[in-house]
Structures are given as C-alpha cells and as structure tokens.
Write a structure and sequence with these properties.
122 residues; alpha/beta; Rossmann fold; 44% helix
Length: 122
C-alpha cells in the first residue's frame, strides 16, 4: 500500500481522511498546516501521494504546491472553494475533490492517482 500525506486545517476532515485511508491499508501522515506539510514532504521522499486542502491559514495549498518540485508527487486537492486555473496548473494535480465528499469518492480518487503513478513508473 501507499504512504500518503494528508494536509487539512479542519480536524474533522483530517481525521476522517486519515481513518478512511488507514482502514484500507495505507500508511498515512497527517498535518494541519502548510508549513508542516513542506517539512514532511522534504523529509519523506518515499511519499506516494499528497492530499492537500487549498484554503488554510498561514501557508495555503497553493503555497505548498509552489514549494515542491513540479511533478514530484501526485496531488489530490480537497477544497470547499472553486479552484482557479492558476491553482490547477501548479504541481501534479490528479483530482479535485469538492467538500463535502464521501469515503467512496476519496478512495476512488486515491486509487486513480496511485494507479496513474504506477503505470508511468512501470
């Protein structure tokens, strides 16, 4: 299974996503800040996927995307707001999940993002 970083400033969303992913066997690291996300991305090169909230205090999702190497890790954006063309052009965004989303939508997006990554590596 994959090693996934989840970043969301909402404790309830962060907890629900982490539990959903762990329940299906993924290793999950969670944080509620963009600053921590950048540190975790740099210190965990084995991460397979980033699930990232766009609207957070401090460094937001766009700031996080700008700080990582474009295309270095697939990204699923989770947001309750409209995502701009600029935001979509940064990084390796595979899917945008609009809040509220359900567990099935989350797991399908994760499977799609991870399958796309493994197909390119194989």
């Amino acid at each position: 299974m994959a090693k996934i970083l989840v970043v969301d400033d909402s404790p309830s969303v962060l907890s629900a996503v982490i539990h959903s992913l762990r329940d299906v066997g993924h290793t999950v690291i969670g944080t509620n800040s963009g600053e921590d996300a950048i540190c975790l991305l740099k210190s965990n090169p084995s991460l397979s996927l980033l699930i990232l909230d766009m609207a957070m205090p401090g460094l937001d999702g766009l700031d996080v995307l700008h700080s990582i190497n474009k295309g270095s890790i697939p990204v699923i954006v989770i947001t309750g707001h409209v995502v701009s063309a600029e935001e979509l052009s940064v990084g390796k965004i595979k899917r945008v999940l609009m809040k509220p989303f359900n567990q099935d939508q989350l797991l399908m997006a994760v499977d799609d993002a991870l399958n796309l990554k493994s197909e390119k590596e194989g």
